[in-house]
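Before the break, one more example. Copy the sequence into your notebook; we will annotate it together after we see the structure.
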Amino acid sequence: MITKEQFEKALEERQTREVREKLREGCVAVAGLGGLGSHIALMLARTGIRRLLLVDFDQVDVSNLNRQAYTIDQIGMPKTEAMKQRISQINPWIELEFFQGKVTRENAASIFKGYPVICEAFDGAEEKAMLVNTVLEQLPDSVVISGSGMAGAYSSNLIKTRKVMQRLYLCGDETYGVSDEESLTAARVSICAGHEANMAVRLLLGETDV
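Here is what the structure looks like once it is written out:
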């Protein structure tokens, strides 16, 4: 087992002092811990931010294993608990907060209040729209990064990050969503997750352009 000091020293050797100081105080919320959100959460934990809020209502299922960051022994566990377990094996010193349940228009603002960056990683279009609209309307100090279009086996280069408005970014190809005609693969979903995680890091560093 390594110490917190050893973990921090390793990060300091790979991040400049200015970047490390900003990321060390970074706080991000991840809404949805499926194929997109589970990988976002792990990337941010590896980056060494201070606090992470993990939000999901579901449990790990065998159908998740083809693209989500869980393991066979975690089947049946709440995704928040399973992700806590995974993160503890990477960065046990990160501050973790949890919400195990459904996010609604009525409770979204109270759940995500205090988080300057919110990564949206829900499955359904209605849930995505609800969270984005609620953040923009009720949380003026928060920026939301949303995923849109990561299904299929199309070119990786189609997945991009776009600034839609002052406090809204979209990551994905914005075309190929979940449907009966499209596959979901670990590689393409993870690419989109990388875009969201990277944009979250850039926002923590004060970089708002894409």
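The beta strands are 27-31, 51-56, 95-100, 117-120, 143-147, 160-165, 168-172. The chain has one domain: 4-204. Try to locate both features in your own notes.
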